[in-house]
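Anyone have tokens for Methyltransferase small domain-containing protein? Sequence:
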Amino acid sequence: MDPKIDVRTESSSMPSSIRTKEGDQWNSKPVSYKMYSKSAQIRLVSSHPEVYEPCDDSFALVDALLADRTNLLEHHPSLCMEVGCGSGYVITSLAIMLGQEVAGVHYIATDINPHAVQVTSETLKAHGVHAEVISTDIASGLERRLSGIVDVMVVNPPYVPTPEDEVGRDGITSAWAGGENGRRVIDRILPIADKLLSDRGWLYMVMLAANNPSQICLAMREKGYASRIIVQRSTEEESLHVVKFWRDSDIQVGAREPTTTSRTTSTTVMESLFSQFPRLAFWRNDNNSY
Ligand SMILES: C[S@@+](CC[C@H](N)C(=O)[O-])C[C@H]1O[C@@H](n2cnc3c(N)ncnc32)[C@H](O)[C@@H]1O
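Reply: yep, here.
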């Protein structure tokens, strides 16, 4: 793999050099910045055949974080968590993105695949940032410690509709196998996210049109969360959404509809989703077209 790293961001607050690995040697190299781009690319220094390599969905998630970066900086998160970190591309990008502008942030990343933990640790180290990386099923064993204190959670889950028996298999299959409607792992993550997120916590999650995003938003609305699409990209193969969720005191927990309107739930949720279209990214062959 090419050891060079290229970080492209909207910001000038990134470190001016970055550590890369060539063979067994760690080197410091200047980082090339291309300003005003809305795409961040980190060329990884570590990989493993059974670990998911960053792909369109990973890029969409990082682009969503970049698009929301100003809000993230103002949010001043204390604890950021990634569930299913794979190569470490997303958590590393987030840590670089928040950088020195938000001091004292603690990062935690989990993955069910132990190889992913190793690769993520190497990627973080290569970029000079730190996260606690834990091999576990979603957040198993961490619930008590992290209950109600995660300010930002990012998830690119296994979302591909597959036969049920492919879910939870060892190795690379666990990276994409999502069972019926691709929802098996997503539907397990959502209630855990609800427990771990702080009152001001934000969740960014990648999902496919096939996962029925409006139904996911409705399920989260019942837990008191508002939602908005930050990025939407259509490729020839799939229609990806990155949706942000946050607790909204105007939404009654358990209520399927806002109390202020008599419109149907499905209308309301779809409007909530698609009213964001002016901000959406329609991706064809160009990563930067917003
Ligand atoms: C689509 S990949 C995303 C990897 C990385 N976040 C990215 O965006 O490139 C999904 C990741 O979730 C992990 N995963 C699958 N099921 C999991 C579970 N139950 N708990 C934790 N991680 C899981 C997989 O091992 C894989 O690394």
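The chain has nine helices and nine strands.
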